Amino acid sequence: MDETRKRSHTYGDDELPPPIERIPVLRWLKENLFSSWFNAILTVVFTVFIVVLLLGLGKWALGARWEVIPANLKLLLVGTYPLEDIWRIWTTLYLISFLVGSAGGSRGGLMRQISMTIAIVSVVLAILPFGLMTRGWILGMGASTGIGFLLGHFGKRFRRYKHIEIGLWVLSLPVTIMLVNGISGLLPVVEGRNSWGLMLNIIGAIVGIALSFPIGILLALGRRSELPAIRLICTAYIEIIRGVPLITLLFMASIMLQLLLPSNVRPDLLIRAMMTITAFEAAYMAENVRGGLQAIPKGQYEAANAVGLNKLLTTTLIIMPQALRLVIPAIVGQFISLFMDTTLFGFIAILELLHISRSIMGNVQWRGTIFELYVFIGVVFWLACYSMSYISRRIEKSLGVGER
Amino acid sequence: MSTNNNEGIIILRDVHKWYGDFHVLRGVSFSMHTGEVLVICGPSGSGKSTCIRTINRLEDHQKGQIIVDGIELTNDLRNIEAIRRDVGMVFQQFNLFPHLTVLQNVSLAPFWVLKMKKSKAEEIALQLLERVGIPDQADKYPGQLSGGQQQRVAIARALAMSPKIMLFDEPTSALDPEMIKEVLDVMKELARSGMTMIVVTHEMGFAREVADRIIFFDYGQIVEENTPEDFFHNPQHERTKLFLSQILDY
Amino acid sequence: MSTNNNEGIIILRDVHKWYGDFHVLRGVSFSMHTGEVLVICGPSGSGKSTCIRTINRLEDHQKGQIIVDGIELTNDLRNIEAIRRDVGMVFQQFNLFPHLTVLQNVSLAPFWVLKMKKSKAEEIALQLLERVGIPDQADKYPGQLSGGQQQRVAIARALAMSPKIMLFDEPTSALDPEMIKEVLDVMKELARSGMTMIVVTHEMGFAREVADRIIFFDYGQIVEENTPEDFFHNPQHERTKLFLSQILDY
Amino acid sequence: MAKKVASSHSIPFWRDIRVLRVIAQVVFLALIAAGIWWLFNNLQYNLQASGLKIGFRFLKNTAGFPISEGLHYSPTDVNGYAFFVGIVNTLKVSAIGIVIATLLGVIIGISRLSSNWLVKKIAGVYVEVIRNIPLLVQLFFWYFAVMLTALPLVKNSIHLPGAIYLTRRGVYMPWAIPTDSFGTWAWYILGGLIVGAGVYMFRRTQLKRAERPGFPIIWAGTVFILILAAGWFITPGNPLKLTIPVLNKFNFTGGLSLSTSFTALLLGLSVYTAAFIAEIVRAGIQAISKGQTEAASAVGLSKVQILRLVILPQALRVIIPPLASQYLNLTKNSSLAILIGYYDLMNVGTTIFNQTGRAVEMILLIMASYLTMSLLTSLAMNYYNKRMKLVER
Amino acid sequence: QTLQTILDRGYLIVGTNAVLPGFGYLDTTTGEYSGFDVDYGRAIAAAIGVDVKFIPLTAGERLTALQTGQIDVLLRNTTWTLTRDSMDLGLNFCPTTFYDGQGFIVRKAEGINSVDDLDGATVCVTSGTTTEGNLADVFRAHGLSLKTQVFADTEASFGAYDAGSCDAYTSDKSQLASLRTTAKVPADNVILPDTISKEPLGPVVRHGDDQWFDIVKWTVFATFFAEEHGITQANVATFESDNPSVRRFLGKEGGMGAKLGLSEDWAVNVIKAVGNYGEIYERNLGPNGLDIPRAGSLNALWTDGGLIYCPAWR
Ligand SMILES: Nc1ncnc2c1ncn2[C@@H]1O[C@H](COP(=O)(O)OP(=O)(O)OP(=O)(O)O)[C@@H](O)[C@H]1O
Ligand SMILES: Nc1ncnc2c1ncn2[C@@H]1O[C@H](COP(=O)(O)OP(=O)(O)OP(=O)(O)O)[C@@H](O)[C@H]1O
Ligand SMILES: [Mg+2]
Ligand SMILES: [Mg+2]
After folding, report:
1. Computed over its alpha carbons, how large is the radius of gyration of chain C?
2. Residue C48 beta carbon below 6 angstroms from any ligand 2 atom
3. Are D119 and D257 in a shared domain?
4. Sequential DSSP letters for C197-211
5. How confident is the model at residue D253 (pLDDT cuts 50, 70, 90)?
6. What ipTM describes this predicted complex?
7. Which pTM was predicted?
């Protein structure tokens, strides 16, 4: 583009800036709200509707018993996680915010914005009237992001730094789970099934995605295999899983799965639920990945073959990187729905966020706070899911999907 | 209709191929010497692409014999690998790897297939980019290049495996008119340097100037095989004449 | 640099257009007589397409004047409708309606816009299909035709509204070499019948033979406007010379 | 050099592509079979160890539990029939939900492309909000918060004009039920249909002969309604009787009643699915290349004509397959009914399982029911895709 | 072999209810279980001298959880029925610890006095229990018309009743008493006098391990025995008696522990851990708990006209 500009000056006329509108606001109104009588009517009707809705909501929000949220905040967020062990959760949060900060420092771009957001949010939260301890913990999160950021910023000069960073990211998942869950013998085990709250939803979703991702890729490759037996089996698996509701599979996990395992293997319900959701999501993941694979032109396979790459190299070096890049939005969408699906764990008596909120509603003291609690849960999920899809759109843009 | 030279670097003997019921190649035989430049032309759908794609086994043939550099193309895994190393190919749609830089595109195969050291592979890649005239684009991504530049990268990528034979499948037909010349120039240089080449193209100017022999294809068969002079000024077949009139009219 | 003929069937006066901040057309002025054939050429991205698309207001211009058949193009809806009836357009990518048969594609607008009887519209459509040489394809769907045939249907479709002016935007650049000729032949016939035509094309053979005038575009401006003879043998501008050398070398 | 040429007979099998393929498949199948055999073995062992037996005889036993939704059923009916009632209930809520979700979704989807900024934004907010909150939360919200908390008790129900009552017990509205004379009137319906069809054909041929575009359905519809009205006056007595809900000791009787669970489920599913349908509709319309619109406007078609003649026929092809999978999703999501007390097939299925202890059989039956629905839908979709596929070379 | 598995593992796994105060309840703020069934779980653990771990189960899951060996003993207000006890499901029921019966809770204001007044009413039920069947039976027997709403869990179904979506809620009476305390205004609701079914509740174990069956059975009897003989949590350590049965009970003679494969003082440990039947009842169901009157009910000692009776300790 720069080149274009420069050369264009060869021919006389200078480029002009585009003509400017006189009264942009009026013009905007006319173009966007009152371009025809039908549009004008719509505008009026919807304005009234919005105003009435907002007034009603505002009135209710002012009179609502919001104290139910702070009073039960710990319960909602981490369930009945023992207070004396809560430092373990903070530690994992520190670990992750440190990693995010470090990535922000060493890579910039989107990660930088995310780490900024974490730092700012933690400062803002610390202003809220939590207990002194909690405020300290929260501020610590901002601090660990900052430390990570500085380290990343200066560390990126070292050639190995980014590799180490990726290694740490990969390690962070098992470390988090071990810290939160405990290791028998070393750290007291805190059972997830009845004591994790929102954290259970989050960890469930992350584990689900981390495990279903590789399985999904294999299934997708299997479904596109040129060997009929493999294709058939993978297709059957995917279609059967996608043909039934998740809730029936959870039902099966809670009641029947044990019957399929050897008599000395009796995994905990939470583990069975995770296995189920992984098996379920893998089928959907496979379809997403397959979508990406289908979008890769045949020419890419041919070119890879023609320079002598074998099947394995073609797949790992040429096809997968492109296919996965294409399906980032679909995968994030998948992650979002997986996160939302963890609310179904309540169906098999696992105390996730929604289930816990219902036991709060059952508490005599908090009778009638049903709206407040559901609004809170709705907002929590909405914020999480919306920001994820926002981030995915940003990643998509920064990778230049669909450009070329 | 075809030479039956056993000494050829490429030998096709009565090659047949079907897509389902559709008989694409209907007994193709020809052979080539080292250093020869062969141009294949013919109407669309006549099987030109299919024919040259059987030579590095991007497609398999169902009957007949294809021998490349003394190796017969069969279902033997090792033969196929060996032949792909010997034969470079340049496609109409470039088919560069869009997620890799130009340098990575070119050095990928030497690194992974020939197991060269990375520095060595990149050195070779840079030399080749120089040869095709775009050493300064090494760190860009294909999407940032013009069509002509992309096709030159594709040529460099094929050359990086030091092939004995290069196949070109309509290398200029997806290019803007202005860019065709830059690619043809590179190919001309390559031909002069003694590379054995098969080129499917409609660029008759190029054929006239560079080809040692021209093959005219129709309905999966070789209709005419001739030297450029005779091909253009003294075509043997009616079909060839008709084709030439259409192509050269404007 | 441009004729300022008030009697022209198409008159552009200092037309400017921006895409956001990007100045695509930077003061384009020319005019055409009835029956004239104008060829526009120039490098990719120079604004050729944009320029002819402003003429039937597929794009609006932001400064200057465009007058077609005595009607000035403004935001007035009625003017736009009138002009679209007078101006037929053929696109590079054909843009046929894939869900309709060839006959329906051609008779659609006469039936719905001119409110002709169906039989009348179809009769006209068949005549036009005959004129472009494919009367026997009437009941096929566009997807079943070759590129050249599709483009001929597109021409018939544009002609069905009996336009006074035809615009062609690189009508042959998506075609195989053999099919280019069949489309160019149809266009040549059209030009001979006295149709006013603007053709964006790189087919220099066609330009030489058919054009009354050639305009060379670069960076949103007319660089050179000339008769075909002078354009090819005696170009005025360096830029034109460079362009021609690249296009005509092989 | 010719001697170097390896002949095809001497390929060692471990390098022969054809042999390798067969081996790979055999190994894969063997692994899968071993896995399944292992699971099956465990199942058999576990069943034996816990003294369970597999069999479907229990479906013939008396169910013994009540279902108060859907087909006529009494606790003395057999389990198999109870399950069938559940299936019908699932289909009922799904079918109505699909209709509502489609209407709502299409309106919102088109609104997202509206030229009115406000309408566009509201539609956008709807989609973004609804899609990012779990369906279960929304169902609970509709059921516990709206239906069971915000709506009043039966005694002081919200009375909408037209004798519609909204209460915590459900929604009650007037409904027409056939009387004795309905049988006579039914003939007029039949007659109206036949005559209407005749008029439609006649008008269509007429239009065709005149070679004009037009809408024969309007004519046919008018005739149909006229005949119905005539029949209403001619037949003695009213063929349909209006029953209006009346408050009794516990509840309203008469009229049409929609249970709370049903209403909440219907609302939740439709509102949720509509957001996805809206996106499909929008994407479908946007998928039609700009070239099509340009070509159509270049030949002088008006905006409405472009939409009707060029965009919609093409967009529908893009829209319908994902739409079908949304319909399927809605049906599968209706299994959440169990959490808000609607008697769908999942709910009845688990009840049967609880009564009889037949875990394996019931889970298999439930899954098989949903799978059948999915398979039928995808069969229909494949048929549709094949029929609607644009003709290509 | 169940006993050996438990000893190897080091703890007993008990399936229980988490949302039924008085019987099995998980306090979500402390993470502690409490209740009548929970105490029996602790008693069994004490008998074999191991820790105990509770697993909350839904009504639907509970039987398979036991059948598949996920839990060692089920203590989740499970009714003893022929079907469940038969070969068909492969379970064994231990002695009944609580005699319950199904009843109805209704709103006082409705003026309902007996089941017959419920004609045409909508009744809320929790699925996965014997309740649905009993309900259908009784309405059929009385020739009443019935409308039900079924939910997967108690919170939902009682919540729906409490919100006014149903006219009545039906469940075991003990459960009704427990739920009434969580109603919006407990005093506005009454439990009807009718008892429409037999609901004997007790521990359940798998078929096929008689030793384990005996241990659980006799742990329950031990609590009965202790109450019959006035042995309490407070005095068990120092309890002295000449009664041979009691001496055998205290492990002072007779080798009763060995016969079950347990230590000799196992019964003492049980009482030390949870007390005798009366104490367990008092703690969970007495005036400080759910307040279900014991005197005169089937849950009184046999000597007081109830059914709580311990076989001979010899
Ligand atoms: N995978 C395939 N399956 C079925 N038919 C095919 C396939 N690939 C190509 N064909 C058909 O084989 C014939 C020859 O194709 P090929 O691509 O070799 O022609 P070509 O001479 O290269 O034409 P072009 O100049 O258009 O590239 C064509 O008719 C084509 O439709
Ligand atoms: N909708 C648009 N928004 C922004 N820029 C555009 C748009 N359409 C075209 N352009 C830019 O305007 C310039 C002129 O485009 P135009 O299509 O008129 O070029 P052209 O001369 O027809 O080129 P070609 O030979 O490639 O068709 C190009 O740089 C193009 O990138
Ligand atoms: Mg080809
Ligand atoms: Mg253009």
Report:
1. 18
2. yes
3. yes
4. EEEE---HHHHHHH-
5. confident
6. 0.84
7. 0.85
